Fold this protein.
Amino acid sequence: IIDVVSRLSATHARTGRANAKTLTQLRVISELFCEATGVDDVRDVRQAHLAEFVATLDQLPPTYRRSIAERDKPISEIVAEASKAGVNISISVATVNRNLVHIGKVLKSAQAEGIRIDTSINPSLLRRFSKRSAKDEREAFTPDDVTRIFSGPVWQGCKSAKRRREPGTLIVQDWLYWVPLIAVYSGARREEICGLETADISAVDGVPVLHIRPNARRGLKNPQSKRIIPVHSHLIELGFLDFADKQREARHTELFHDLQRKSSASQIGDSMDYLWRHIQSDRLGPQPKKSFHSFRHYAVQGLRAESDVEKHVRAELFGHLVGDIEDDRYGGRAPITSLRVAIEALPRVM
């Protein structure tokens, strides 16, 4: 199984069909499958083994193996300790389904190589279905939420560079200052923003833009995520383009060079998660259905409310498919002027 994963990963890496995060997930999930079932030969896999794998997932706490103490601990011990301690066991429906999809890819890859596998295996039979719709997973920030967030010390004046949540007179224009502002004025995903390189800030036909594209720091969620987003005029007024120029002058390849991954298996954006959650809580109080991703929902909803912004323009800005084969496959790119008008429809937040 692991040999098949290695060959599949090499092919995907060479052809660009999957980013580093996806390939890491593929390897980790396959190793977990082998450990949970005791099967390491793809020819021996049966439907019962998939059911056993899902049953193991159902007994794992969501944070399993994230701590150093658990990193090398057998999965059977983690399950036993979680059961004994009565900890929360609630791996999400999406995580279970993602695990099944990756195992399915390994089986199909082996079959494509000519390796004999049990053709009666069907991972989709074990898929889980959430009672909640996709719209209920996360809530958008409201305009009032956004106003309250950006009236906070990070953007209005903090105590010091290390005491950003306390009011003061110092404004530090670093990743913590810029990343949320870019999110609210673009609707881009957290990882897309955190992984920007200085080369990704340029101009198209005289319009300053962000190039959302794969780079040495991170890949993208899917092919349609590759896009160009005009820089909102408020970001320019606040000095964002000057900030990017200074990073180039300092010979930094990364736009936010001091924002680094915690580990090779983590996302760049994970490094801002702890501080961001505290800032959000400071400004909005407990709102468990809202997270940094709520900026994206805020921007999407904001432009949907603008009747002058056409659907295909919104889709291009947010990296979505329109859902119409004529537009998705044959439709041309929206002119940069149309994209700029749409971005400028997002209201100023401070």
About this structure: The two ends are 54 Å apart (CA to CA). The chain has a mean pLDDT of 89. The CA atoms of residues 26 and 105 lie 9 Å apart. The first strand starts at residue 158 and ends at 160.
